[in-house]
Amino acid sequence: MSTATEQLHVQNGLVPDPTTNPKPESESEPELETEPAPVPEPEMKPEPEAKPEPVPEAEARPEPLPEHELVVADAADPKVNEVVEASIQSHSPGPAHPELKKDEGSRTFTMRELLSGLKNDQSNDVVNDSSSPYGYSEESPQEQHSEQNNAAMELINSVTGTDDDGRSRQRVLTFAAKRYASTIERNPDDYDALYNWALVLQESADNVSPDSTNPSKDALLEEACRKYDEATRLCPTLHDAFYNWAIAISDRAKMRGRTKEAEELWKQATKNYEKAVLLNWNSPQALNNWGLALQELSAIVPAREKQTIVRSAISKFRAAIQLQFDFHRAIYNLGTVLYGLAEDTLRTGGSGHPKEVSPNELYSQSAIYIAAAHALKPNYNVYSSALRLVRSMLPLPYLKVGYLTAPPAGKPIAPHSDWKRSEFILNNEGLQQVSKSEAKHVPQGISGRSVEAAIKVDVPDIVSVSACGDLTLPPGAGLCIDTIHGPVYLVADSWELLDGWLDAIRLVYTIYARGKSDVLAGIVTG
Description:
With 526 residues, this protein is an alpha+beta fold. Among the domains are: 325-394; 400-439 and 451-525, PH-domain like (Roll), CATH 2.30.29. Helix content is 49%, strand content 10%. It is built from 17 helices and eleven strands. The chain has helices spanning 2-12, 80-89, 111-117, 120-126, 142-157, 164-186, 191-206, 217-234, 239-254, 260-279, 284-298, 303-323, 328-348, 359-376, 381-390, 495-513, 517-525, and strands spanning 41-43, 53-55, 59-61, 69-71, 400-406, 420-426, 430-434, 456-458, 462-468, 477-483, 486-492. A hairpin with an 8-residue loop joins strand 9 (462-468) and strand 10 (477-483). The longest helix has 23 residues, at 164-186. It is elongated. The two termini are 28 Å apart. InterPro entries: Endomembrane_traffic_mod, TPR-like_helical_dom_sf.
């Protein structure tokens, strides 16, 4: 049994919990002569208490989690000056590429691997548009660089911090900014220095009081965006710059509410997340943030555009989960966007298309993801509050109930005419087919004797779960559950419904692999 579990860990991208087995930092590329300097890395802030927002139909709505925020070294670190010095010195022989903080379960790729894997048309898409809103020219005179540096330093120097900790951190940031400004004056094409300076400006914005006007948080973020723009113009493959640039733009958009200006900023943010993902496809956090930006954009655009943007957000969250099955933030955020889609579909009546997913099914799917996020992180208050809101939408005492087309018992490869559409139930124990005679009286547990099940898959026996396009299967959305006893083939009613089955089964196994099956059992039976 342990062998099967370990095998699924490898195939499904599961990794040990980072709190018990922290992952060592990746080594620098062998062709670089100097070690990449440590730079400020994105870090998620603790979630606030759940604050369901009032929405139409007198129904509360779970809030999406925020994006990653930026953080710099603590001022109490006695080596902070050495860190800044090393960061400056690393630019001369061979520019090191500052890396984003890697999400657990994500392999680190070198820039050479990324470049060799990109197609020519994708590379062309990454190059900045000539119509950049920040207006940098190809050949800026030395005086122009000096003026820009002075303006940025004036902003940095005017930040004092709101408390002792903030003031201490700001002193470190100011010191770093001076060094980056000096480096850029000597070499205006040093994109690493521009990138690091942008990070300093972005972090300084967090040290500004919300009611401050001199400097304003927006002015600091705008200047950070200028630095990111220039850095990516000089090095169009700097994926971490596109990523953090998108975060800065998102922060500016949040200040503007649901206005036309905010809409344009959210569109810019989504484009930069797209570029970051094109250059570093193996980043679940970038995909998650991309989905969040699309979710925010969908709340501003005209109604005729909303549906397309929402479905795009769903695809980004789902892609993030497929890269890292235990990425609870993306799991929860997918639940919130499905909840919103269910509300919209219920309010508008939907498109009337026969294959369109019903509002009740969307609510149920939303509840599955929120329940899974809670099972993975039961101590997160925001997940607990959202679960109380949506738990009744689950097909209790199960996590998921629906229809799949299955072959006769014991005959995985049978004539298409022998395959029958029947009801299946899924909970923390596994997946099981319900016989026609008992379909109207679904049992209280998968192990119940009253069910004459032809197909049963226990969670510990699962090796992998994937979509399947085998020609031996009947027409439709094929599903393959590989187990230690052999593969089990099923067919979903549509590809959209198949996504729900794939995610649900993978999440149940992920929760089992993390040792949290008892939490999930409490949700569906409690």
